[in-house]
Model the fold of this input.
Amino acid sequence: MSASAARSMGLRDWAMLLTLSLLWGGSFFFVAVALRALPPFTLVALRVVLAASCLLLVLRLAGLSLPRATTLWPAFLGLGLLNNVIPFSLIVWGQTQIASGLAAVLNATTPLATVLVAHLCTSDERLTANRLAGVLIGLAGVAVMLGPAALGGLGGPLLAQLACLGAALSYACAAVYGRRFARLGVAPFQTAAGQLLASTALLLPTALVIDRPWHLPMPGAEAWAAVACLALLSTALAYVLYFRLLRSAGAVNAQLVTFLVPVSALLLGVLVLGERLAPNQLAGMALIALGLAAMDGRLIRRVRAAVRPPA
Done:
């Protein structure tokens, strides 16, 4: 991937980013609903088991298969650990202690962590002034949009907040680590399926030992619907798009989705539930848009070219 490709995205990349934000925007709601009936590890295990099963079925129907090279499976395990096992477990546990709004704000530090990890670990996604400014503006936009009520929880359980920040760091490491699969010729669909299958191998025994789900009461239809949406939409479909975006736009740009997830959640509330946008939400969205424009860089370059005096 060239440095220029890592800094700017085309229309197709932006479309994937927006769609991904819609899919992940609903995940906090689905988790909140499912947690009423299921403990955290069981919920996370169900999420990856159902998502992996879905992708394996689609691969089979399409006449495709997972990569057979044995050297890839340790890499899938590493990716599953960084992108699923650690962050899913930390966020879901964190949401048992803190509000989902605060969890979303803490999760929005992912691009900042990714900028730093990519700068340290790659040669083509280095830290620039535009990137750092864009990330900080976008993070401020998320905080403004969610309002003082979400930030008020910062005085709450410290371990739960650190868990959400740890999830953001894990996502950042996964984004940089996941770039290798494109170089190895693994398609995004195969990468998503391999990662989720590896995550299943790690999470399912954990849930069985810790939660002993056979002793739990049977969840109701509402909880099962939330689990299905979480697994099929916010995980299986979302990861196929994510790995396509990671391949074409780079690790830092792919993680900008965490800025758009709260925006998507609010807009879904307006369109589906008839909710109204508050002034702070509009201001936060404007800041996020400004941060994304700064990260992309093209608008800034055009403004500079327009105001530059003729030679």
